């Protein structure tokens, strides 16, 4: 049984980095038409004058680790995520998570259309890979997208002319309209020269994260390879969004795959009068921030990841 999203068509403009591309993504499960106009301009998505200040911090943590300031824009965000991954790799972390909103640094899931957020994640993945990896490492990096049609779109637009290996997790079946997809055997996709796997937004259907687990077990465990999950919306699994009765395999990931994962970079916003941000940049602590006019104030920090429910109902409510 698979949760499906309705089909829709969207036109959007994304601003990120110097380049000019035009492309159309057409998928059996989602249709996206987009004009990609990349510019280094995030004025509509963030406030560059925001400052960071630590105040009345609760919770214990090793204060020798310097806290990283909340990013002022997506350029700074990508640089922070890149540095966090580099440090985690030096600490021999094999399974890593990067999670942040793509509709604006203060946005929450649902603020943007699903297909638009996915398209923006493709742009962010390219930016991230260009900063993280030297050109010679492109041939040993395999980037997985949810479906084959998204691979074709990425090849024609954002990743055109690069040497990154683009691959997919699932492919449509004749019964896709009823929620069925054909899983791809990871052992058939991985090559011996692959060193790094990056999986982009594997949340459109529940089978995608199960394939990611298979990839980790068959191609990463007991090797020197690394695996990064990029904007996988894993909080859906952590929070029990998918009922265990209907999705037992997915729920089991909270006991099998997720405990092995290091969340190296993370932003989750909470709206409302008692709103704030849960923020982490490896190897620093988990910080709960409150935005007040032109600055962020840290009201709580701790070593382990708090649940979103705990942040919203306990930490922010009492801060």
From TrEMBL:
Entry-linked InterPro entries: DUF1995, LPA3
Domain DUF1995: 71-312
Pfam families: DUF1995
Domain of life (superkingdom): Eukaryota
PANTHER family per the UniProt record, alphabetical: PROTEIN LOW PSII ACCUMULATION 3, CHLOROPLASTIC (PTHR34051)
Stated name of the protein: Protein LOW PSII ACCUMULATION 3, chloroplastic
Organism: Camelina sativa (False flax)
